[in-house]
Amino acid sequence: MARYLDDPFHIDARGRAADTDDDDHVYDLILQVLFTSPGERVNRPEFGCGLKQMVFLPNSDALATATQQLVAGSLQRWLGEVIAVEKVEVQAVDSTLSVKVSYLRRDLGERREDVFTSGAPA
């Protein structure tokens, strides 16, 4: 089984850079795409989908649909070799945005479903 640096980077109990397994690594990759805003990365300014900005927009069905398309497209673009996105559900309640992503891990052929949440800063 492969080992990857954990994201966010931190030091583990052994005093070394923390690592993680395949499942958590794929979760971390999706999280990076969802919550990185385009322009945030200097060497890859188009990376991300800008989901954090959606927290501050007025809640509506049109916004939810647009956000679902944005998320699905970004995940396909940046992680298309790692996962096949099957379904994206977006729910905005007050200042919290929840995104449920159903996907197929291409390396294992397993279906997964993860929920990612971001809230507005206090």
What this model shows, in words?
This protein has 122 residues and is of the alpha+beta class. It has one domain (4-119): Nuclear Transport Factor 2, Chain: A (Roll). Helices cover 27% and strands 29% of the residues. It contains two helices and five strands, in the order E-E-H-H-E-E-E. The chain has a three-stranded antiparallel sheet, with helices on one face. A two-stranded antiparallel sheet has the order 1-2. The longest helix has 19 residues, at 61-79. The termini are far apart.
**Shape label:** globular
Over all CA atoms, what is the radius of gyration? 15 Å
Order of helices and strands: EEHHEEE
Give a quick account of the main beta sheet: strands, pairing sense, barrel closure: 3 strands, antiparallel
Q: Count every helix, treating DSSP H or I runs of 4 or more residues as helices.
A: 2
Query: How confident is the prediction overall: mean pLDDT?
Result: 83
Q: Within the largest sheet, what's the order of strands? A: 3-4-5
CATH top-level class: Alpha Beta
Low-confidence stretches: none
Number of domains: 1
Strand residue content: 25-35%
Overall SS class: alpha+beta
Total number of β-strand segments?
5
Measured as a percent range, the helix fraction is 25-40%
- Stated plainly, the CATH topology is called Nuclear Transport Factor 2, Chain: A
Distance between the termini: 40 Å
The name of the CATH architecture is: Roll
